[in-house]
Design brief:
By secondary structure, this protein is an alpha+beta fold. The chain has three domains: about 80 residues, Conserved hypothetical protein from pyrococcus furiosus pfu- 392566-001, ParB domain, CATH 3.90.1530.10; about 120 residues, Arc Repressor Mutant, subunit A; about 50 residues, no CATH class. It contains 14 helices and nine strands. Strands 1, 2, 3, 4, 5 and 6 form a six-stranded mixed β-sheet that branches. A hairpin with a 4-residue loop joins strand 8 and strand 9. The chain is globular, with a radius of gyration of 23 Å. The N and C termini lie far apart (about 55 Å). Belongs to the ParB family.
Length: about 300
């Protein structure tokens, strides 16, 4: 992938950068644009709260030294490629934003946007998961590329890694993730632990969101530290409810599955619920199964209906 130019360098460096020569045309100079003319709908980094207070103070004292990058739209409007925090700071200050206007082709704007996020701060696990979900569910990629494999190529991940990210977002839910925040100190294993707890959780999701908000209101420290504590509060609430709702039961015998591993199958809720606990030495298979669960269950359901005819 082409290198992204460093924003701190002069405009001439931006003009001569490889991705500029290959995929974009810059309109000479830096323009001052009313923030109201810049569209930010669908921005991937808008899914979690944006902190701009420190940047706003800096711009107020020293001016906006680094321009944002925008793409022209019809009607004297622009689409933001990167510089979301700078744009928001100028918007709150009530001043025009300094911007470079460019025309990009293909998914270069999307890649620029992702790179900006990663340079601002390493994306947390759940931020990467939200980006992966947005790429798959939104219109950032062409239809044929809007697959797990296409998302993996943009994010420079393995397809199995994308499946893991998507699975966490779909199980935890974006509303609860929003309540928790970026949680940069919480990695994949803890989010997987929360996902597992929520599969067995039968309570009100609003209570979990309330646990996150309460933890934030009672915590001090940086935004990141408070977000980490919100996650831990939600995890404890979900696991606590799981312990209360699941009294000890005699374990079901494991079923040997040749070439795969072993599994236990349990039914509940008057025959309306089935739980499969699979153990295998191939984590890649588990990730693939996780990413294709909906399709596989649909196929099995169709086979069952045909057998009933």
């Amino acid at each position: 992938m082409a290198r992204k130019p460093k924003l701190g360098l002069p405009l001439q460096t931006l003009r001569n950068a490889p991705d500029a020569l290959e995929g974009r045309r810059l309109r000479g100079g830096v323009f001052e644009i009313d923030p109201a003319q810049i569209v930010t709908e669908g921005r991937l980094d808008d899914r979690l709260q944006i902190e701009v207070e420190g940047l706003k103070n800096s711009i107020s004292k020293n001016g906006q030294r680094v321009p944002v990058l925008v793409r022209p739209l019809e009607g004297h409007r622009y689409n933001l490629i990167y510089g979301r925090r700078r744009l928001e700071a100028c918007r709150e200050l009530g001043i025009k934003v300094r911007a470079i206007v460019t025309e990009v082709e293909g998914d270069q704007a999307l890649r620029d946007q992702l790179l900006e996020n990663q340079e601002r701060r390493d994306l947390s696990f759940i931020e990467r998961a939200l980006v992966a979900t947005a790429l798959l569910d939104g219109d950032h990629l062409e239809g044929a590329e809007r697959t797990n494999r296409g998302v993996a190529e943009v994010l420079n991940l393995h397809e199995a890694g994308v499946s893991q990210l998507l699975s966490v977002v779909r199980t935890v839910g974006e509303e609860l993730i929003q309540a928790i925040g970026a949680a940069p100190g919480i990695g994949r294993p803890r989010w997987e632990e929360l996902k597992k707890a929520l599969v067995a959780y039968d309570g009100d999701r609003d209570q979990l969101q309330a646990a996150a908000h309460t933890a934030k209101s009672e915590s001090s420290g940086s935004v990141d530290e408070v977000s980490d504590r919100a996650f831990l509060a939600v995890l404890e609430a979900a696991k606590s409810a799981e312990r209360k709702a699941s009294p000890p039961r005699k374990g079901a015998p494991a079923l040997a599955i040749p070439g795969v591993g072993a599994a236990t199958v349990k039914t509940g809720r008057q025959g309306k619920q089935l739980k499969l606990d699979l153990t295998t030495d191939e984590p890649e298979f588990v990730s693939w199964l996780e990413g294709n669960a909906s399709k596989l269950i649909t196929e099995l359901h169709e086979r069952w209906k045909r057998s009933e005819d």
